[in-house]
Amino acid sequence: MPPEPKGKTLDSGMLRALAHPIRVRMLDLLNRDGPATASGLAARLGESSGLASWHLRKLAEHGLIEEDVDRGTQRERWWRPAFDSYRLRIADFEGDPELESAVEVHLRTSIGQRYAAEVRFVDEIGEWRGAWQGKFSFDDDKLSLTPDETEALDAEIQATIARYRRAPREGDAVVITHWAAFPRKGTPE
């Protein structure tokens, strides 16, 4: 039986660490592609190894990543995410202008990365013929809900995702899920 996935709700220190676009991108790469070194991440991000190392230390300082001691050497440190997923509860940071700004930076960067991942998939769509043909989806729905119904819907979606979380097996591909539920103002007359 695989170990239970480790999830985490972001605290103020973690949020501050993720209020920088490079750090959000680094954590995303580590989550999606697995452990990496500072020089490997630097090359993928078009940054210097020194800058990548500094940002990795900040992520580690706030418990977002940890050293992968099974891969490293004395000269080379490998890093991996400290947990499988994280959750941002925006309400936890309301009323603090510094943290509200950090939430905004983090959300804008994360949403930009989600969009970029979807664009990459469209660029590669021809490579997913065969068993994957017709199995992927992009849905955009509009519901009329109260705040409490929205909260309940989110809890049900999270529970469904949790039921499918398991260790990788032969024939698997990494499948990205994006979930957001937010209100929209009406259109002007």
Class derived from helix and strand content: mainly alpha
> Averaged pLDDT, please?
88
* Biggest sheet features: 3 strands, antiparallel
Strand order of the largest sheet: 2-4-3
Helix tally equals 6
Shape: globular
User: Care to count the β-strands?
Assistant: 5
Say what oligomer this is: single chain
In terms of per-residue confidence, which ranges show pLDDT below 50 for 5 or more consecutive residues? none
Percentage of residues in DSSP E strands: 5-15%
Please compute the radius of gyration using only Cα atoms. Answer: 18 Å
Amount of helix:
40-55%
Order of helices and strands: EHHEHHEEEHH
Gap between N and C termini: 57 Å
Your description of this structure?
It contains six helices and five strands; from the N terminus they run βααβααβββαα. The chain is mainly α and 189 residues long. A three-stranded antiparallel beta sheet has the order 2-4-3. The chain has a two-stranded parallel sheet with strand order 1-5. The protein is globular, with a radius of gyration of 18 Å. Helix content is 46%, strand content 8%.
